[in-house]
Amino acid sequence: MKILVCISKAPDTTSKIAFTDSNTKFDENGVTFIVNPYDEWYALVRALEIKEALGGTVTTLSVGGADYEPVIRKALAIGADDAARVDAPEGDSLFIAKQIAAYAKDKGFDMILCGKETINYNGSVVPGMVAELLDLPYIALATKLDVTGQVATLEREVPGGHEVVEVQMPFVLSAAKGMAEQRIPNMRGIMAARTKPLEVVPAVAAGNSAQVVAYSLPPAKSGCKYIDAENAGDLIRLLSEEAKAI
């Protein structure tokens, strides 16, 4: 079993968010980056569970600069066998998808696992683009993955219930909550990660099809208004007049 897991970095959720260059770029100064949780907790861990049960290898792939190395080493410490990094500045979703597809197209991966989205952009579009570029089946927002031979059985939530689908390998999926449980790297894994292979490959020619016009922070939260239980009329009025504007 040969599995590719796409790994992205994301700001730690406690980071203070700010922008530069007339609000067109995210200010990374002083920001601590982590492995995108959907990539780590669900896609990577489930890939490792399948490898442990059926044998094979797990490779991680990231698209970005040398500053990605701490994030990649974290994934290796959790248990990935090796890693690759496409040496390219971060671009739009299609640019990233083209880099992933170019790397994966001739490597013979049985499955390509991605988190359903990154917590900093929430686009949830890269996995589907990768599948289209590689002409592979795509299962979105999977919450369960089992493998028998060359057939994978996947489950995902749909309105009103659950959907179970079967797909022949190879395929691409995006992993959602429920796929696996978070793993904490131990000291042995951390030490081993230092010597695991990390291949740096050049980017393929692919321009950006979209550009950031501006970032903006959400409006500050307003204070709470407390209404006495005896003044239900005031509550109804506020819900009618002010809650709609929030």
Short description:
This protein has 246 residues and is of the alpha/beta class.
CA-based shape: globular
Number of helices: 6
Can you tell me the number of structural domains? 1
Return the average pLDDT rounded to an integer. 91
What sequence of helices (H) and strands (E) makes up the elements?
Answer: EEEEEHEHEHEHEEEEHEH
The helix content is 25-40%
* Rg over alpha carbons: 21 Å
Class in CATH? Alpha Beta
How much of the residues is beta strand, in percent? 25-35%
Based on secondary structure, the structural category is: alpha/beta
Q: How many beta strands in the DSSP annotation?
A: 13
Q: Which residues form runs of ≥5 with pLDDT under 50?
A: none
Q: Gap between N and C termini, in Å?
A: 50 Å
The CATH topology turns out to be Rossmann fold
* Strand order within the widest beta sheet: 11-10-9-12-8-1-6-7-13
Model description:
It is a single chain. With 246 residues, this protein is an alpha/beta fold. The protein has a single domain (2-216), classed as HUPs (Rossmann fold, 3-Layer(aba) Sandwich). It has 6 helices and 13 strands. It has a 9-stranded mixed β-sheet with strand order 11-10-9-12-8-1-6-7-13, with helices on both faces. Helix 2 (69-78) crosses helix 5 and helix 3 (93-104) crosses helix 4.
